[in-house]
């Protein structure tokens, strides 16, 4: 390896693709390639579902528009064309009449074993082989729900004025060139744990029988025991379990993968979000479970999520709307109403005769109280409008967090609640400055066009 090549490799080591001076490694290039690959796979699935290959070799019979006086001749094709599919006669043994009742011959009886039990040593080997079988089964692939969420890449931005786009020579700041026309935003994205909500058909009354399981994003493990919900069976939702779910019972819904067994992942982004909001609004609401603690308990704690809350989506991503509405919204908190069960003491009928005064019957009644839950924002998600849902980390979805933490966001370590010490400036701050810069450039270009 030459000295110059070694220096170039060291210079680009652990450097984000946005800072590497190569068009093929930029996030924009990888995103375009991923979108084209997704469109190709989608077209192949459509062609496969239509089963066009089965009809490729079919031909029509004789035309009905031939001469009127022509006689109808029978079809000359028979079953001869299927003769090649039959087994050859040499492979089929000839059976003579009356051979079914014939007794086996002497040599055949002599060749049969008198006993089917093998030596004990072989039996031990068989038992050892069986004992080794679980070890082979232990090398199974991971849980089928592992890494099934569409996980966004961190938006790679730069404020280096010397960076230029490889195609048209404009400033390569890292923002998508078509962000105003070809993207959809989810904001404010709440703080919490990413997971999948999976339902099955319950054998009982909906809303009372457990039918929903939450699976972790990385390993696909169950986060809690199955619980009842209003989500229909055979549904898969991409969700965020709120950081304070035990206090507010909220499960945030990001996306829809499957609904009542129908695959929604192959649909484009705006339709999936519209379907999500429409279908969740149609679901009935069930009261939260009654408190297991004593009535004197200060705060109710949910045993499982009871409120399905979709994350708001926005299709207007003009630079002015981003600057004035969406970016401030990504920094703000959100308040939503929730229902919390409370115990109300009720006394029985008054009985003032004798000693029964101190033994008056007392009971409790469970009522629902409306409260406001505060939801903290974690940032903004950007989706390519033409993209479909795909599992794993994808450049077709971008993540712009409010804060920059010391740990990597892609790790499974959770940041303690309330500890928001940032190591550097937040990515959302850089995103806001780049949007303002583009706005100034567009304003300057329009003014120059008017003067000319």
Indicate the CATH architecture of the domain at 150-348 and 361-409 and 419-451: 2-Layer Sandwich
Summed up, the helix count is 8
Name the CATH class of the domain at 150-348 and 361-409 and 419-451: Alpha Beta
Shape: flat
Q: Enumerate the spans where pLDDT stays under 50 for 5 or more consecutive residues.
A: 9-21, 99-104, 135-141, 166-170, 349-354, 357-361, 407-422
Main beta-sheet annotation = 6 strands, mixed
H/E topology pattern: HHHHEEEEEHEEHEEHEEEEH
The CATH superfamily name of the domain at 150-348 and 361-409 and 419-451 is DNA ligase/mRNA capping enzyme
Measured on Cα atoms, how large is the radius of gyration? 34 Å
SS content category: alpha+beta
Domain Snurportin-1 m3G cap-binding: 175-288
Family: Belongs to the snurportin family.
Protein name: Snurportin-1
GO molecular function: RNA binding
